[in-house]
Structures are given as C-alpha cells and as structure tokens.
Amino acid sequence: MTFEKQGPHNTEAALKLAIEAAREEGIHKIVVASSTGATAKKLAELEHEGIQIIDVGYARGVFGKHEPQMSDEMRQDLEAMGVTVYVASHALSGAERGLSSKLGGFGPVEVAAHALRIIGRGVKVCVEISMMAADAGLVELHEPIVAVAGTGHGADTAVVIRPAPTAEFLDSKVDRIICMPRQG
C-alpha cells in the first residue's frame, strides 16, 4: 500500500495493515515507534490477540528534549494493556550525532541513516527501532517481526524485517514494505 501523503492521518490504516501482515506471515511481535505512547496505544486498542506489541521510544536528550516524552500515566496504561515499553538512544545516531553536532562533520552511521531515508523516513525508523529492540533482547535476532513507524507523528510506514543487533547493523533484512507514503 502506498499512501498519497505522509503523516498521522494514515495511522489507523497503517496499524491495521501491520496486524494483517503479522497474521498472514505468522509473526507474533510488532515493534512500534511511539515516544509519547499514543501510537502504541492505538495499536493495542485494535484486535491483536497472539501478537505482542513492543513500544520503542527515544531516550532523553534526543532533539534537545531532556524530559521523558511519555507520561507515567501513559506508560502504566500501556503496560496494563500488555504492551512492553522500551526507551533507548537511537541506534542510527545516538553518540555519533552527539559528536558530529559538537565537532562538525558526520560519521558512517549517520550516512547509513541518510541512505535509508532515501527510501523513506519511516523505513529508516523501522530499521532503527528493530535494532534497538534486538539490542534489548525484546525480539529474536534474524527472525521476522513487523515494525511500524511514521513521519513525525503517528504511523504511515510498516515493514516485515529480520532485525540484527546494532553491532551487526548491515545484517538486518527488510523482507517486505507493507505500507509507506509516497516520497515528496
């Protein structure tokens, strides 16, 4: 599915397509980028029996924000719904962005992130959150999962991916793009 425009207005459709693809392929884990928890909550409110939802958010200090993006109340709500909440540094920037922003230039991880954005911002984030979940031991290495992300807020991209840990980044494999917006 290709959405005509990127953005949060695609969230419900993207989430439903992600669940449908997981069921079709016998996948039991969906990793979703949701720093505030709003997108993860929308996903958890849909019928997803037999599918574990893992919400991956970004750590403090990203984009100059030093406060947690998710409220304690939202975290409690998600956990009560059976959602695993995980917060970590971005796998495709983290410390490298900290160096380049202070010292100038760029490193190979940032180049890889920009190369993934050629396909789409959401695809880059799907790869990234899958590696973050793999690093944390929340998904099996090299086993298919569905990853869901968006362009800014909400969701507009979903992929089937076999994640590798960050240390083996180039061994991650995107098997299928379920949905994404047309690139502007």
Which SSEs are present, and which pair or pack?
Layout: E1 2-3, H1 11-25, E2 29-33, H2 38-45, E3 52-58, H3 72-80, E4 84-88, H4 94-103, H5 108-119, H6 121-135, E5 145-149, E6 157-162, E7 173-181
Parallel strand pairs: 1-7, 2-3, 2-5, 3-4
Antiparallel strand pairs: 5-6, 6-7
Helix pairs in contact: 5-6
How would you explain this protein's 3D organization?
- The chain has a single domain, classed as Pyruvate kinase, C-terminal domain (Pyruvate Kinase, Chain: A, domain 1, 3-Layer(aba) Sandwich).
- The protein contains 6 helices and 7 strands, in the order E-H-E-H-E-H-E-H-H-H-E-E-E.
- The chain has helices spanning 11-25, 38-45, 72-80, 94-103, 108-119, 121-135; strands spanning 2-3, 29-33, 52-58, 84-88, 145-149, 157-162, 173-181.
- A 7-stranded mixed sheet has the order 1-7-6-5-2-3-4, with helices on both faces.
- A hairpin with a 7-residue loop joins strand 5 and strand 6.
- Helix 5 (108-119) crosses helix 6.
- The longest helix is centred in the first third of the chain and has 15 residues, at 11-25.
- The model has no long low-confidence stretch (mean pLDDT 88).
- InterPro entries: DUF1867 (IPR015074), Pyrv_Knase_C (IPR015795), Pyrv_Knase_C_sf (IPR036918).
- This is Pyruvate kinase C-terminal domain-containing protein.
Give the count of helical stretches: 6
As a percent range, the share of strand residues is 15-25%
State the helical fraction. Answer: 25-40%
| Shape field | globular
Order of helices and strands: EHEHEHEHHHEEE
In spatial order, strands of the major sheet run 1-7-6-5-2-3-4
Strands, count: 7
Euclidean distance between termini CA atoms: 16 Å
The Rg value, from CA coordinates, equals 15 Å
Provide the domain count.
1
Instruction: Report on the biggest sheet.
Output: 7 strands, mixed
Average of pLDDT: 88
Low-confidence stretches: none
Pfam families: PK_C (PF02887)
Domain Pyruvate kinase C-terminal: 12-160
Organism: Hydrogenoanaerobacterium saccharovorans
Protein name: Pyruvate kinase C-terminal domain-containing protein
